[in-house]
Design goal:
This protein has 206 residues and is of the alpha+beta class. Helix content is 45%, strand content 17%. It is elongated.
């Protein structure tokens, strides 16, 4: 006969098989006690990969899983700027920290793992152009290519202009987005005036 602890242990294993990673709060809401989680960590069945985030030991690491880990730490955040550019494979740069956009009054997490670079966006910039991608069973919000390019050109004090131009060139060369979609994103994102000459120069030869 299964005890309550055995039942929770089995449920914990099932949840982490399905989701790969989960927050402690989600596990508690699913009926898993803090003691069961702690015991599973102590026994080596579950890993605590960052503050309040757990995964099954030995779980296969997915590409971009660190973005999912960041999202679990900052549920209101959106993968932004250089990290969004890298996600869309439009830069060779691998940022040392995960760039995330949050609102003007949103809570900023205590720094641990993964390392985060938080930026504050005002409305409506914060909610424009968000895509959701499933990574390691987690719905990760990432800004779209047009939105990311607009943010890069608009925030030259945060990111060097050369990074924005590199991303724009790569997006056009790889044909991941049309020039008209880029222009529309720049207008919506308050970056059209500064981006326009670069876009015109890069598309002048067709």
């Amino acid at each position: 006969m299964l005890t309550s602890g055995d039942s929770q242990k089995a449920k914990l294993r099932s949840l982490l098989d399905a989701r790969t990673m989960m927050r402690a709060q989600e596990l508690r809401e699913a009926g898993i006690s803090a003691q069961t989680i702690a015991r599973a960590v102590e026994n080596g069945e579950v890993e605590r990969i960052s503050r309040g985030v757990y995964q099954k030991r030995g779980a296969e690491i997915e590409e971009n899983q660190i973005l999912a880990e960041a999202t679990m730490r900052v549920p209101k955040g959106v993968i932004a700027l250089v990290s969004a550019l890298a996600f869309h494979e439009l830069t060779d740069q691998m940022p040392r920290r995960i760039w995330m956009a949050i609102g003007a009054s949103d809570w900023t997490p205590v720094q641990s793992y993964p390392p985060l670079r938080m930026v504050r966006f005002t409305e409506p910039y914060l909610r424009q152009g968000i895509e959701h991608h499933t990574i390691a069973g987690v719905q990760v919000p990432v800004y779209s290519i047009p939105k990311t390019l607009a943010d890069l050109f608009r925030n030259s004090k945060l990111v060097d202009r050369s990074v924005a131009v590199e991303g724009l060139r790569a997006a056009l060369q790889q044909r991941k987005v049309t020039p008209s979609a880029i222009a529309e994103g720049a207008r919506a994102g308050g970056a059209w005036k500064v981006m326009k000459p670069y876009l015109e120069a890069l598309t002048s030869n067709g």
